[in-house]
Amino acid sequence: MSIGYVNGEFIPVDKPVIPIDERGHQFGDGVYEVIRVYHGKPFMLEEHVQRLFKSAIAIKLNVEQSHEDIQQLIDESIEKSGLADCDVYIQITRGISPRQHLFPDAPVSITLTVKPMRVTEEAIRENGKTAIFHEDERWANCYIKSLNLLPNILAKQNAQDVGGYEAILVKDGFVTEGSSSNVYMVRDQTIYTTPLSKQILPGITRMAVKNIADMLEIPFIEKKFTPDELLQADEVFITSTTNEVMPIAYVDGNKINDGASGEITRLLYRKFFELIE
Ligand code: PDD
């Protein structure tokens, strides 16, 4: 069963609980993580919690709870939900205080939900999804997993409005990442992805895929590439916690590979699913 948690209390997910003067929904003043749980075990939990704290520090959010406290809270929530395969969303905001821009003297708010996993059908993964190129209109600190997702959701909606699934963001002529994923191209049996910088989120799935590529001895090169180079690639795929490894078969109407999942992409997601079995 889906469950929610707000500042110390487990509640039904649909219970209205957030006060108006809450920094998260007034300012987007907070950070978050999405963690996928396979067979009762949160995937790369430590890495997610580490990134959550890095994001918090980057926005000067003083979280009194320790890494262990947060990991325990996540474990306890999963157990309470009774769900074996689920998605955990956790956010930490600068708390509840009468609205003003300056930091309040208030404890942080920690809220989370545990919901059933939305499984991707095998056929979709075999056929691949479609994407569009979209200007990256975000700010200078995209390495922070901040609640401010307006440019991301506008880009994703624009993709959906023309029948696409993901928006591949382009800044100064180079691909950065997806609106909610990291982006890769495969050329001559080699994987290319944008190097880590303040311009992209250091994806946890990206980390997993890099390890898998090493394991399979597939070269993994972190190097910027242009939309034209991506269109010339043998394969294109995206990764994220909820998409895992997802092939992209069309970009702006151009067929990649033969419009289906490519060989390297398939190797990567098969290995990924082997690891979580
Ligand atoms: N999004 N880049 C962006 C902008 C993202 O929002 C995400 C994930 C990723 C991939 O990160 P990871 O592999 O750690 O999930 C990259 C999550 C899933 C979301 O906002 O729902």
Automatic annotation (TrEMBL):
A Pfam family the protein falls into: Aminotran_4
Enzyme class: transferase
Listed PROSITE patterns: AA_TRANSFER_CLASS_4
Family matches, as Gene3D superfamilies: 3.30.470.10, D-amino Acid Aminotransferase, subunit A, domain 2
Record-listed E.C. numbers: 2.6.1.21
GO molecular function: D-alanine-2-oxoglutarate aminotransferase activity
UniProt name for this protein: D-alanine aminotransferase
Gene it is expressed from: dat
